[in-house]
Amino acid sequence: MQLSEAVTDIDEAEASKHALFFGGPLGTHRIFMLMRNGDADGEAHQITADVYFSAHRDVLEQALHRKTPDTEMRLFLGYSSWSAGQLDRELERGSWHLAAGDPKAIFDTASHSLWERLIETLEPSGLEVKLGPAQGHLSSDTGLPAAEPFLVSTQR
Q: Could you say which of 17, 34, 142, 148 is the most buried, measured as most Cβ atoms within 10 Å of its Cβ?
């Protein structure tokens, strides 16, 4: 959906130029932003080289006022979260594979092919990710019930 559909009391002309992506099932009443640059008020926090995070409305409004393009800002509705140690355990059992933080990939306008491009960068080469029974989710042989939507991979 477009940002203007989710936030009706904001500059509609600029907001209609920005896609709003699903960030996860938690906090779906809030918008979270990744941006290529911070803000003067310190409400955007650097998370890696040339990538900043914020959930402040005034940062969003400033970005819209500056006519920030999609190549410099990604907007997400909601977020995902793990309990203490949960993500570490999932990484240890091979349920996730890490890709290097890459601002070019984050802000690429060809977001429809992002997963496929990132999978090609994973080591060892030859990883294959398949859609599982839960449409739109990736799954594999993790020992989890087949209905569990989980990002995992198998070797070709």
A: 34
